[in-house]
Each structure stands twice: as C-alpha cells, then as structure tokens.
Specification:
GO molecular function: NAD binding; oxidoreductase activity, acting on the CH-OH group of donors, NAD or NADP as acceptor
Number of strands: 15
Protein name: Phosphoglycerate dehydrogenase-like oxidoreductase
Strand order of the largest sheet: 9-10-8-7-11-12-13-14
Pfam families: 2-Hacid_dh_C (PF02826)
Distance between the termini: 47 Å
CATH superfamily of the largest domain: NAD(P)-binding Rossmann-like Domain
CATH topology of the largest domain: Rossmann fold
Helix content: 25-40%
Number of helices: 12
Order of helices and strands: EHEEEHEHEHHHEHEEEHEHEHEHEHE
CATH class of the largest domain: Alpha Beta
Shape: elongated
Radius of gyration: 25 Å
Number of domains: 2
Keywords: NAD, Oxidoreductase
Strand content: 15-25%
Structural class: alpha/beta
Length: about 350
C-alpha cells in the first residue's frame, strides 16, 4: 500500500479529498444510511456509500477513493482480506463486532480499525448469563431427557449436590471492559459475589470492590464457582485457561466463554469436563466452526452455542446506528469513535543515492 505524503485530517484522509467512498456489506444499508442518492454531505466532504461484501475484486475511483470499509461480520476469509488490502487509499476498517483481532492480525499498518463498542454489550451479557444458568443447573441434560421423551424427577441428594444457584455463587469475570461490566451488573443482580480481573488493577465500581490484575488469576481461580471469560484475544490471553488453570478451579465449578475460542485450550477443556472436575458453557470455540464429530459436541458437562451471543433482533439496528454516526463524523471531518488502532502510514522510501566512485589517477 503506497505511502501518502500529503497532509491529512484528523481521520488520516487527504485534506483534498472532497468526495470519498465507504463500503458496506449489505446492499440495503446504502439507502438506509444515505437515502436514495447513496450520498451524505457534511461540513468537510461528501461521503458516497457503496455495497461491497469483499467477495469480488473492486476497482477504486480516484474521484471518490475508498477510504473506509465495513467488512462482513462473519466472512473475513483470506480472499476477502486480500481484496480489502488491495484498495490503495483505504485508511479504515470498521468492524461490526466488539472483537477486532481478526482484522488486527491481517490488515497492514496504514489501515486503522474501529470496533463496534456499544452494539453487542447487552445482548452478549444476556447470553453469558443464560449460559451460566444452564451450566449451574445442568439444564442441558434435562433438555436431552425431554427430547427423548423421559420425565426425570431429579430431586434426590445426589442431583442436588451437583446444582448451584447463582445467588450463592462466587463469580469471576475475566475481562472488564463494557461487556464485562454488563455481565457483572446482571450477575450481581442475582445476589452473586462478583470479582473482576483485567490487564491491570484499578478501582472498582458499584458491582466489584476492585478490579484485580490478571497476574492474580491463579490466586483467584480456587475461590470462585463460576469463571466467565470476556477478555480480548491477544498474545497474552491465548491459552489463558489450560490444564493448570482448570486444576485450580474448585470441583464442580463452571467455565463460561463468550470471549474468543483460543482463550481456552480446547483439549484441556475436554479433558477437564470429561473427568467431571468442571462443567462448561461456551459460545466460542477453537477451531471455529467445529468440524463434525469434534469432542466438544459430545463431551458430557459441556454446553455449546455456535458463536451467536450478540445475534438478536435489534443487532442490525444497533449496527446501522453506529455506522451512521461514523459516516457523519467522516463527512464533517470529526474524529471517529471506537478507534482501537490508528492508521500508521508506511515510512517514505528513501531514494537510492548514486554510488560514489573514486577518481582513478
């Protein structure tokens, strides 16, 4: 991607760019966001919207260069990334998800990234709560009995000994951004005692006394009945929960993962659940999607949903509201929101200097 030496505005666009293009993955979004003309104007420039789902090559228009793209939420294939990075003037990718690791590790430095903070917090927190309740009360086994047409009156002492109410549980939320806080709010409303962990320590809030640093995770795991993962996927969090961490959890404890699949060592999770030491309810897996016959499908004590925590009826409206606000900021020359990685222009290439030859006497 060529270096842009021209002066740039607050969003790293050339100041001379009076008309620019932003692509969206859904053809109905063009009119929904910009009306029948497909364009919106602001105090800084005119923004033209175009449908592009990255499934085919795209020719850029120098008169209205593509400066920002909204990639499909669930379709970032290697070919799609190639098509995206081939755009010579691209400065931004606006993720439709809260997580952006799938873009961060694939897009070159000159392309900045905005995430969808504000879109998925409440729905993902709802799903995390649902997974927690299912695992604490072994509800998936009762669903299996229903499907099989069996009435199972499981009220005896052996059954009760394996069940726990959320209000009498100690819950550890690992990752305390906006979604983690929304989860803590729900869990605390049930009367559970909540502890939060983040990259570094910081003061607490109305739901947690203090946010503990991640390097205290091993100290905290034995003290909690439920561990809910909502941490970003980074080099430090990949494999965060593995065999040793599962061994530190109390017998019968529950792991809930609504973060990213690779935050958990899948083989270690299968072994820990198969042994009966822990139970788990996960919305994300590694690999993803799971191949047919994978042990996560059939291991007792594991409840699985296929990465759909935020998929509710209102998700499209929330995404449209966010993208619409970003478009207006771009048109008005105002700084974008939810910037998680700013563009870093490639360094200018120094021209080669002619070699100095000594005069031959």
């Amino acid at each position: 991607m060529p270096n842009t030496a021209a002066k740039t505005d607050v969003n790293h666009l050339p100041t001379a760019a009076e008309r620019v293009t932003v692509t969206v993955p859904d053809p109905t979004w063009v009119e929904a966001l910009a009306g029948p003309t497909g364009e919106l104007s602001g105090s800084g420039r005119t923004v033209r919207l175009e449908h592009w789902d990255l499934s085919a090559p795209r020719e850029d228009d120098p008169a209205a260069p593509l400066v920002a793209a909204v990639p499909p939420q669930f379709a970032m294939t290697p070919d799609a990334v190639t098509e995206l990075t081939a755009q010579p003037h691209l400065r931004w990718a606006w993720a439709l998800s809260a997580g952006y690791d799938h873009l961060d590790k694939r897009l070159p430095a000159p392309v900045g990234i905005c995430n969808a903070k504000g879109v998925h917090e409440e729905s993902t927190a709802d799903h995390a709560l649902a997974l927690t309740l299912i695992a604490l009360r072994s509800l998936e086994t009762l669903r299996d009995a229903q499907v099989a047409g069996r009435w199972e009156n499981r009220t005896g002492p052996q059954w009760r000994a394996k069940q726990r109410s959320l209000h009498e549980s100690r819950v550890l939320v690992v990752g305390y951004g906006a979604i983690g806080q929304a989860i803590a709010r729900r869990v605390a409303a049930f009367g559970a005692r909540v502890t939060a962990v983040a990259t570094s320590a910081r003061p607490g809030d109305e739901h947690v006394e203090a946010v503990r640093p991640i390097d205290e995770l091993h100290e905290l795991l034995p003290e909690h009945d439920v561990v809910i993962l909502i941490t970003p996927l980074t080099a430090d969090t990949k494999g965060l929960m593995s065999q040793h961490e599962f061994s530190l959890m109390p017998a019968g404890a529950v792991l809930v993962n609504v973060a990213r699949g690779p935050v958990v060592d899948t083989d270690a999770l299968v072994a820990a659940a198969a042994s009966g030491h822990i139970r788990a309810a996960v919305d994300v897996t590694a690999p993803e999607p799971l191949p047919e016959g994978h042990p996560l499908f059939s291991t007792p004590g594991i409840y699985l949903t296929p990465h759909l925590a935020s998929a509710t009826a209102g998700m499209d409206d929330r995404q449209l509201a966010l993208i619409g606000a970003q478009l207006q900021r771009l048109a008005d020359g105002e700084a974008l929101e939810n910037v998680v990685r700013a563009p870093k222009p490639e360094p200018a290439t120094e021209p080669e200097q002619p070699s100095q030859q000594e005069d031959i006497p």
